[in-house]
Amino acid sequence: MAYIFECNYSKINKNSWSDLVKESNIGSIYQTPEMYKFWENQKECTPYIYTLNTTNNELVAVCLVVVQYNGSGLKKHFSRRAIIYGGPVLTNNCDKQVVFNELITKVVKNLKSKAIYCEFRLSNNYCDFKPVFEENNFKYLPYQNFKIKLKDEEEVFGAFTSEKRRQIRRSFREGVEISYKNSDENILGVYNIIHQIYNDKVKKPLPKYEFFKNLAQFSNGNVVALIYEGKVIGGGFLVFDNHTVYDWYRGGLDRDYKHQYPSTVAAWAVMKYGFENKLTTFDFMGAGIKGEDYGVRKFKAQFGGELVEHGRYMRELNPILYKIAMFGLSILQKL
Known about the structure:
Distance between the termini: 54 Å
Keywords: Acyltransferase, Cell shape, Cell wall biogenesis/degradation, Peptidoglycan synthesis, Transferase
Family: Belongs to the FemABX family.
Domain BioF2-like acetyltransferase: 165-287
Strand content: 25-35%
GO molecular function, one term: aminoacyltransferase activity
Radius of gyration: 20 Å
Protein name: Peptidoglycan bridge formation glycyltransferase FemA/FemB family protein
CATH class of the largest domain: Alpha Beta
């Protein structure tokens, strides 16, 4: 069957796009029309949408790509990366191998002039498409993640380690409160904490404050703030679709508030947001590479979720520029 490739946002039927993501068993918030518009309004990034239609104008596949960069001039040029959050979405009723291969081939060809590398950060099981990725010269990275089924709040809480349950109970006894109010105070307070963590520990680029403010005010996003004695001591920023809440950014002032356990309570607060909004899954958004020592994985494992390996697929679109960029990042992380 012949398929028609489209990369012009204005020519794509938004209702068909939205319906496809909702109905597909590999759909996610990251591939929706709403997410495209969100990215379109952010600085230091450009979204691109790619679709395949049958000759009868039936939408069978969508792939939302965000090309992100930092700064301007040479810094911008060497930091351009094409990220596909969640993974491409296909209709449940198509020749998936053929459609996926044609989509990936055309997406890569279109992105070569836009970024130095391309990375698919998968939220669902794409193992059936591994041969297609490999045929298109993508390298598999065994990234893991934890997911928790939000069936019953007491049951989920009971699956935490005894230490985590104790920490959360003590935090609330100490007077810590959860706020989902998208106020400037909450947004800025949580952002400052995450910014500090990225500066001190992560050593990777972090979006600017405006990104997080827009994310909290996004129709499918929210801030989570932990308030103690009138001050924000932890929290995060989440997004959600019709079934999953995604723990996108989160952190806490654990050293300063050792008996309030803000990082632990922030994770529980995002889960509670899922329960309160009748969502069925909590997604921890990553647990590092399989086999590598990673403290964050140990932390997340204490919440009783299912450890999955959906992985990532990466391809260098410009190998020379990629090597230069990675060398620069390695220097930055050592500073």
